[in-house]
Specification:
single chain; mainly alpha; 83% helix; globular
């Protein structure tokens, strides 16, 4: 219900008129449907990455249901505040009939960790790319002192994050996280009661989290590689759109712009659909590369229309998934 309501609100409050949307789509031509299909490829990579995690061990869940849950989960993440508050609980509930609540929870938590982990690798991969491009074209890819300081700070944060993720993968982290949250005011006591009541289940979930890295390093690497590759493929969308109005744009430009904008948008993760933050970050990144903020804003708005199409598809798939589960239960 929230997903349907969010789609309606977004359609009514979208900050671009239908005439402007029509004009933009005409300007992109065949590129726009190509970008919509490109995201099907990206979602297939995401779903396969998650399926590897789900099926590590005794589970055997088919790919099609996982793909549907993946698209619907991302649709809810786009439309709900605080991102993971919508899509991940839905994925757990949708996966529960297949493998049970404990394994569903551990697989979703593992996939979220993998999704975020690949983000950090993607952001850091843009740093050596930018430095390399600086030596070939220092006028366009300038290395200013503020930028060097930001990169240095982020490198330290990245190293710390990788360490924390490795600790989480090695030992699990749900129990530690819940005990930490139990110290918070107002919500601490309910969390403590929940933890005490479900201690065994939480412990089992932590064990399943640590199993992927300790006993399935090949599965871990495959899942991470697919998530990283999905981001690399996602940059093609920006490259194709930018070339519609500025043919001189390169794939490397798109890679750097996507890395910067996704970093900024994830910092402001609590904004539903990243409204405003995405457009602003893409425009700023394009301007810093002497491409022009107008090109960046145009690209961000076109990708916004593509997002809305996939949000509608994701919400529709939720109903098909529910009906399929009801029929399976009846049988």
């Amino acid at each position: 219900m929230f997903g349907v309501a969010a789609v309606v609100v977004m359609l009514l409050t979208f900050d671009v008129s239908w005439a402007q949307i029509k004009e933009m789509l005409q300007q992109t031509g065949i590129i726009f449907p190509v970008c919509v299909l490109l995201w099907l490829v990206i979602y297939i990579m995401n779903a396969r990455s998650w399926q590897i995690i789900i099926n590590h061990g005794e589970s055997k869940v088919r790919f099609c249901p996982v793909l549907g849950m993946t698209v619907s989960g991302f649709a809810l993440n786009y439309t709900t505040p605080f991102g993971l508050m919508g899509g991940e609980p839905y994925r757990i509930l949708a996966l529960k009939p297949y493998i049970g609540i404990e394994r569903a929870t551990s697989s979703v938590v593992l996939y979220v960790m993998m999704h975020i982990y690949s983000h950090f690798w993607f952001w850091m991969s843009a740093v050596p790319l930018y430095i390399t491009l600086h030596f070939f074209n220092p006028g366009k890819y300038a290395l200013s002192l503020p930028l060097i300081i930001c990169v240095a700070v982020f490198a330290v944060v990245f190293a710390l994050t990788v360490y924390l993720f490795r600790k989480g993968y090695d030992n699990g982290f749900l129990m530690k996280l819940l005990k930490l949250c139990a110290r918070l005011p107002f919500i601490g006591k309910p969390i403590m009661r929940f933890t005490e009541r479900n201690a065994e289940k939480i412990s089992n979930t932590d064990k399943r989290i640590s199993m992927l890295r300790s006993c399935g390093k090949a599965a871990f690497c495959k899942s991470l590689s697919l998530e990283f590759l999905a981001r690399v493929v996602g940059c093609v969308e920006y490259w194709l759109i930018m070339r519609c109005i500025m043919p001189g744009c390169t794939y490397a430009d798109a890679y750097i712009i996507v890395a910067f904008s996704s970093l900024f948008s994830n910092i402001l993760f609590f904004i539903p659909m990243q409204l405003g933050s995405k457009e602003g970050s893409v425009a700023a990144a394009a301007y810093s590369l002497n491409i022009g903020s107008g090109v960046g804003l145009f690209t961000a708005l076109v990708t916004r229309v593509r997002e809305m199409i996939w949000i509608v598809i994701g919400v529709v798939l939720m109903f098909f998934s529910k009906n399929a589960h009801d029929e399976r239960t009846d049988i």
